[in-house]
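Re: Re: ligand-bound prediction request (bumping)

Still looking for help on this. To restate: I need the protein modeled with adenosine-5'-triphosphate bound, output as structure tokens. Inputs repeated here so nobody has to scroll up.
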Amino acid sequence: MTDVVAMSGLSKVFNPGRANQVDALLEIDLKVSAGTFVSLIGPSGCGKSTLLRVIADLTPPTGGTLSVNGKPAAQARADQDYGMAFQAAGLFDWRKVVRNVELPLELRRMGKAERRTRALAMLELVKLPDFAEHYPWELSGGMQQRVAIARALAADPPLLLMDEPFGALDEMTREHMQAELTRICAATQKTVVFVTHSIPEAVYLSDRVVVMSPRPGRIVKVVDVDLGARTDDMREQPQFFKKVTEVREALRGIGAGAPRGVDDR
Amino acid sequence: MKAGGVKRIALGLSGFVAMAATWELYKAIDGKLGPWHFPAHADDASMPHLLTIGRRFLQPEVRDRPGTVLQAVISGSWYTFRVAVVGLALGAMIGLLLAVVMERFRLLERAWLPYIVLSQTVPLIALAPLISGWGGGLRIGSLHWRPWMSVAAMAAYLSFFPVAVGALRGLQSPQAHHEDLMRSYAASWGQTLWKLRLPAAVPYLIPALQLAAASSIVGAIVSEISIGAKGGVGRLILDYFQRASGDPAQVYTAFIGAALLGLVTVGLIKALEKLLMRNRAAPGLHP
Ligand SMILES: Nc1ncnc2c1ncn2[C@@H]1O[C@H](COP(=O)(O)OP(=O)(O)OP(=O)(O)O)[C@@H](O)[C@H]1O
Ligand SMILES: [Mg+2]
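Reply:
Sorry for the wait, this slipped through. Here it is.
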């Protein structure tokens, strides 16, 4: 299998040589092969968002090598090889839902009719076809987040980068969104790098859970999760709890006060 | 909607009635409260009765000549309005352009903004004749510099400022994750400006334009007065003032014209706001 994301010895130092220097990432080796779902979990400030932003070429690494979709990260960004979703849905208030989903297509200069068809199909996929002509502020938080996912999928990128996309949602909505995301990923065969604070969320969604330690941020453990098809029942299965415990213990192992910023939900 | 409209009109009228009542009350009780007068004169030469002012509108502007004061004030206000709008459009364009450049080059923001603020502390009264002096000899091809152009230039000079400051804040208003999103799409600077920064700036632009509109009217009238440019309501104020001792009510007709001019202009910006903000969330609905 090909690696959609491949990095080795990747480091990121903020403000090098200055009093406020931060070693955000140190010597990270990570490979994400096509079609897999990888979660990054770790205490607050361990560099999860930074890692995601480095992959997205929103911030340059200070060391190591990185390839995204088989090319340099900058080229992958230029080619819109990934779609991104953040904790804040980040929809544009002045655009109708469907026009929000069309945004990445517009920027690629896709024709009007074509991108409308494509955006409507994406809204169908996230089960919001009836809200195409609404404005984002007329939607609930969970619905907005689904629009954001539709937008990330619109240009059909092979890779999805998600930074705590469900972080601001209530527990019920969150579990529902997790099920939806699993369904969407299965349907679209995406490769996903997903940042979360929630251990059960990471276990439920992922093929692999990457546990990180803070300052300097590095990978302490990779937990392989092979639980088969995700169902709601699965959340109550012993195998599920076994994996949750494994991740939790890896997080504990990081050291004193490590579980800070990680919830057991 | 309909009931709300009636209510709004009634409220607006109540303000007018209150002002009129205060005016007449002030006149009525002056000298009646004791053997003294209010410090500001309330006699008919200084504060004519509203009815007198109203009647004056319908009388000929110059005795035994056709054309009422009303016609003169309306045509003067209309003239000034058009000149001010030219100035406002020019000023808004310059302000927006400055804001776009300052947003693009942060260094320039630091370098330019102090001068932009400084520009507004130059006394208008002194600047208007200066501009008309500079412009006086100017000709571009067959186009001669006209006094109204000096007036429009002054209106632009006053109105570019709030637009530059407001637009800059608006262009800088998108949140970091919005900018990241555009970068993740490898959007060009122009695309980000057009699809993110400018729409995000609209709520900041509207109040800025409102200020600019009011400033453009003030700038136009003051420079009409100070350079004596013909045709506008500023010139009427000047002319009527010279005849004020014999015809006090006439001065006020020009004042009312100027005030209504300001109201109409700001009202037009309000209409623009309705149009541009129709798709936005009601304030407070969004975090
Ligand atoms: N632009 C920046 N300049 C300087 N330091 C930064 C910058 N961005 C992040 N950092 C530092 O890098 C470290 C990692 O930050 P990052 O945002 O990646 O953490 P995180 O794991 O995503 O945390 P959280 O779970 O709270 O979102 C932190 O110590 C942070 O202070
Ligand atoms: Mg983060």
